[in-house]
Amino acid sequence: MTSPILITGAGQRIGLALAQHYIAQGQSIIITYRTRHAAVDKLEQQGAVCIYADFSTDEGISAFINTLKEHTTSLRAIVHNASSWDCEANNPDFAALFDNMMRIHAKTPYLINLMCAELLLNYQQNEKVPADIIHLTDYVVETGSPKHLAYAASKAALDNLTKSFSAKYAPNIKVNSVAPSLIIFNEHDDEQYRAKTLKKSLMGIEPGCQEIINSIDLLLQSHYITGRSLPIDGGRHLK
């Protein structure tokens, strides 16, 4: 079996699309999920190792890492996709909100990167090419967000971890970020919201998950890019 790619939060949306893409390529994958959607059952039927993980507590993070190591001794890559879009308007317990955002978006990747480095190094030593860590951050790392303050701060922390881990693990493990803005709408997004959001970028389209897949493929195929963030934002920074 090839060394698997670990994709966190792959039960839906971008994470699911990534999992389906790599399964189609014959690449072994391990995914995490918190809610077991029907898509998780299908991924498991297709050969993916699907591990329940609750990243909202330190105990949950530790339990996942222990379980992961029971399934594999090496990893081709880690893609940190697990995320929460919680915000101040929906969660008046601001202290809890901030802690939760930091735990999911920064502390979880931080601990997994530290505790699972040996798995990535085993791949590098066997294949003689770098392994990869890829963080999915967000366009708001550059701008902040008045409506998602804690979320934006936590994604900015993850962006900074990209720089620190790339320096720590070079040249054996490359560490990069992908920073998207709009990729796919939610089913409940109304037409007014969709039209307003599309106008925020120069390209003015809903690009779809393939844009993230292409970006991650680029990073995995490179032997030279590290410590960088790929902006997948349709030129939004120029609007």
Automatic annotation (TrEMBL):
Presence of keyword Chaperone: no
E.C. no: 1.5.1.3, 1.5.1.50
InterPro entries attached to this UniProt entry: NAD(P)-bd_dom_sf (IPR036291), Sc_DH/Rdtase_CS (IPR020904), SDR_fam (IPR002347)
Catalytically driven reaction(s): 7,8-dihydromonapterin + NADPH + H(+) = 5,6,7,8-tetrahydromonapterin + NADP(+); (6S)-5,6,7,8-tetrahydrofolate + NADP(+) = 7,8-dihydrofolate + NADPH + H(+)
Pfam families, alphabetized: adh_short_C2 (PF13561)
Gene3D superfamilies per record: NAD(P)-binding Rossmann-like Domain
First and last residue of the signal peptide: none
Function of the protein: Catalyzes the reduction of dihydromonapterin to tetrahydromonapterin. Also has lower activity with dihydrofolate.
Record's protein name: Dihydromonapterin reductase
